[in-house]
Specification:
- This protein has 47 helices and four strands.
- The chain is mainly α.
- The strands form two sheets. It has a two-stranded antiparallel sheet.
- The radius of gyration is 41 Å and the shape is flat.
- Residues about 1-10, about 685-695, about 820-835, about 955-1010 and about 1020-1049 have low confidence and may be disordered.
Amino acid sequence: MGEESETAMASPDRNLTQKIAKILNETRTSYATHNRKLKELATIRSKLSSSESESSSVHQFSSVFFKTLTPLFMAAQRRTAAAERVVRFAAEFACLRRISDGDSDCDEFLEEFLKFLVVGSVAANRNARFRACQIISEIILRLPDEVEVADELWDDVIDCMMLRVRDKVPVIRTFAVRSLSRFVNDPENSDILDLLLEVLPLEQNPEVRKTIVLSLPPSNATTQAIIDCTLDVNESVRKAAYSVLANKVPLQSLSIKLRTTILQRGLADRAVNVSTECLKLMKEQWLSNSCGGDPIEFLKYLDVETYETVAESALEVLLSEGLIMPSDDKSIQQYILSADGEARDESTCSAPSIQLMEPEVALYWRIICRKLHKSAQAKGSDAATAMGAEAAVYAAEASDANDLLERILPATVSDYVDLVKAHIEAGPNHHFASRQLLLLGTMLDFSDAMLHKTASSFVQELLHRPFEQELDEDGNSIVIGDGINLGGDKDWAEAVSKLAKKVHAAPGEYEEVILVVVEEVARPCRERTADFLQWMHMLSLTSLLLENGKSLHSLQGKAIEPEEILHALLLPGAKHTHLDVQRIAIKGLGLFGLLEKKPSEGLVRQLRTAFCRSPPPISIMACKALVDLGMWHSPTEVDKAMGQDLLSQFEDESIDFAPIDLSNAEEDMNFKMLDLLYAGLESDDWRAFTESSENESVKATVGEGFAKLLLLGEKYPNLPASFYPFVLGKLIALYFSEESKEQLRFKQCLSVFFEHYASLSEKHKGYVSKAFVPLIRSMWPGIYGNTKSSSYVVSNQRKRAVQASRFILQMMQTPLYKKETRGEPESQFNKSPEDSIQPPLNCTEEGLAIRIAIEMLSFKEKKTAAEKAYVAALCKILVLLHLKPSDQNVIKLLKKLLSLLADSVCSEKELLKEVKPVLEHLKSLDACPSEELTQDQANPIFETLGVSYNLEITETTTVPQTPAPCSTRPARSRRRARIEDTSSDEEEEVASPPPSAPNTLMTRSHRASKAVALAKIMASKVKMSNVDEDDEEEGASDVTADDSDESDE
């Protein structure tokens, strides 16, 4: 009876299981069947609840449904389309609400299903966790708001998903984040937002990062995190960040800095999808929705005076897309009014009344006019090269652009001059608008004589404008601006120069006009009656001329000759008592030297003196001038200009550099230019004067100059070979030093330099390899005279040295850039013989391995703690090298060195564990393991690498490990064999050690003496004859005598 009742009970469950399984199988084929199958499954559930009690029916249906769905959780399968359809169907059924069904049945089933999924989400099986989190996320995102679920159950689901956010499987983390995205806006669940912000910068998978970004709500806490994702390495993450900014973050809630950062990164992004998404953000959300399509209003959100380049690029993109274009009733002419308040035209003779422009308006009109001017020129060129109807179309387009440009620009040159003057006289608040209007002048036509005269007099006024100044509390005059360029602003000086070149476009006219003004302004300076402001004005004009001049020949025959500029203006200015005058004069000297065919002695001597003896701001300027001269004329030519023999420590291959003390005024500066510049890298404190630019320092300026010289080293063949690895090592040390953390611009410059340097040529890799050992040795604390400090400082120093070693290894392993030297591309089957030539040994990782092995063998067996840590660090680098089957002699040498190294570190298990795999790899690369490498075969390799090592000496001294294993029998047998073999003087000479042996044998004198003493004691116990001992002593004395004679010689 019991078996029959169990069978009767199992039969309905089996039928229900078959029905549910059939429905689930049919949902695998297409999403189109889901609606019909949802109704069928809901009907089965409703029929079951009507035939039995409500609670038991739901429980029975749920248990059978879960059991039928279980294979989906357990099977380790791929994300197939069929399985994804089943997952979606299960989530849709859990969220299903029908009027015919009772809500209680649906809610109870949903709760049972969620409990089942929560259990699956913490399972050990990866696929079970994945499917559980996937279905939970689908249910949460599809569940209607009116559905009521117990708070305790939601808390369990949220806690479980927060735990899965840190799962080791990326796809599980993705669905866990999707599940939490619906609760992240709830203020009661602030811990969810904190968790997402915490894991976002640490997440390695791009898909998970993208899901987190899309889940973040708009708030002050999340805005910066979203904007940081615009710099993500993955394109999809960056695109998602811009999508979130467009859809969730309003323009008004962002600061000006964040707005410009978003546009600057997005518009310049290399990925087309990302830049398109940024354009969509700017066009649809910011311009259309927030600014009503008004570009002027849009520019007001960007602060064009501070972020001019960003606003300019944004306007250019909008113009290229055809989104903005001036209407017919707007132009610059509406800001130039007649006396009656109407817009002026060419027939109006009364004095104009100028309406001042806002900065955004001035920038807007400049970009519009520049766009039209370029378009007219381009279409005109196309019309000139085309023929027929095509040429007529291009000519018509060029004519339309010119007509629109003429309608926008001021009607006359006089009106333009009055407009600019009004903005200049309005004060500093309109300085930006004045500069934009100056640049508009390059689009005007000054060919008419009267127009040219009017514009020329205006240019004269601009050149005669002195520096603006203000008085401090003590009544001293302070220059407003940078104190270097004309008008105190580099952009202003460039605008004035462009307008002057446009007005005075005839050959030599531009230089003549500026020199006339310089000669006039320089009169008080020559007469010693000028104050420092007049000196600065004169020198700024001179620098402007030299900066835009092509050669000194174009300055000859003018108001002031080139020699007069140097000796009467620049050199006296460099010796002026005022520091600002000295700085601008040093800049002028550097520009003057670039125009000379060969640098003059007085100019070079003054720059060297300024670099060595002046405060940091002037030293920085002198350093820039010296570096520019060295790169233009070559460092050798700059040194020749001194007219005397100069010393250089870079010519010494030993790289033992004695630093020059530039702070000592009495020290002789009879050194070459590179030595003086290198002293700037070595000096720690540059005199008491410390007022320097926030982003500049002497070390950073010298470092950038050396980086340029290293990159272009092939153009300077006369530089000593030791210069490159020595300076390269110093730059790497500075890059990882503690003091360079604040020099962000310097570190950015070096990071770009290192990224390209090793990939440019094989020579560069050779310099990197040669710089490795001296650099790491100098950075490691406690060895080779490096001072020790506290344990914390020593730990940081070791970390930096390890970072530097791995960084150099990365540079060595970076592949070379492909050089396209042929006009036609080569196929992979038609390569030149040069492509198959192996690089020189000193440029390969094998050469670096030899250098590291010799450095490790240079330490004694009994090492200090610092030496042990140093050797261990080198050993870890040695393991990371990719050794290839190159020259067999190189492989044999490496194998021999590492064998000796393994013998020397046999007592240190960790080091031996690191060395053995490399040694086994080398043994596999050795084609003839039985052949040994001789010293004569190794010497050419050592000469190539610039190192020296004696393999034979090392072998004789490293065989005996400890005195304990020594016994009398082996000792006597060796001695007897030696006595029997020494039958002649020639054989004695062959058996004797090399001349350099005594120095190495002295390191084992104590151990050797102990062995001899033990041998004598054992010999006396067995009553050996004293004849052998006497012979041995005589042999030893002979060897000692020979060695002493050789040492005397």
